[in-house]
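Summarise what follows for lecture notes:
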Amino acid sequence: MAKDLSLVLLLDCYGELLTERQQDVAALYFNEDLSLTEIAEARGITRQAVRDSIRHSEQTLLELEDKLGMAERLCGMRDCLEGILQRCEEGAVLPPETTADIMRLAREGLSLL
């Protein structure tokens, strides 16, 4: 089972909607990079139970993203804010105080993502 790093973002967005067990197993698998066997041993369950939990979590996360699209929107917002910062840093023609305010707000927005 190959790890899809985009699922880390989906786990961040929708992880609270998974069961506690799914959250735990998915976090160990995606965030801590533990193997199925390592998770099974740590949690006292079978490797197959870990695999099934991850498979169900992935399916749930992908379905939620398909319906809600939050991760895609968050990535789009990040791209926009980074673009604003880049243009301000390149010296877009604005009064200095306006540029400073825009940069502050863009940084604040990025920190919230």
